[in-house]
């Protein structure tokens, strides 16, 4: 007799306003999300440069956002790219858009860091820009 085990680690809990706002309460996660929204897709090395933080810290926060199904990832060669989940609840998307407008003065220096980055990884054009 075989028994199927319920794998809680790979099951997503529904995103509630409370859980979403808890995700946004961390500055690194919030800024990473807003930068990803602005650029449509970024890899860890780009976020590390923009946020001027360590790769392990950025990766940890991206994993939290991916586990919550706020972000999706894809691998292209040695790079892993992150983008906003297009099935994210409309209320959450609207919240992020409004936050991006309000946060623009704080995001501008981060975007300048990203723009000054040399050797940014190249993307397959059909993969990330819609």
From TrEMBL:
Residues 9-103 form the HTH arsR-type domain. It comes from the Bacteria. The keyword DNA-binding applies. The keyword Transcription applies. PROSITE patterns: HTH_ARSR_2. Pfam families: HTH_5. InterPro entries: ArsR-like_HTH, HTH_ArsR_DNA-bd_dom, HTH_MetalResp_TranReg, WH-like_DNA-bd_sf, WH_DNA-bd_sf. Keywords: Arsenical resistance, DNA-binding, Transcription, Transcription regulation. NCBIfam families: HTH_metalloreg, PRK10141.1. This is Metalloregulator ArsR/SmtB family transcription factor.
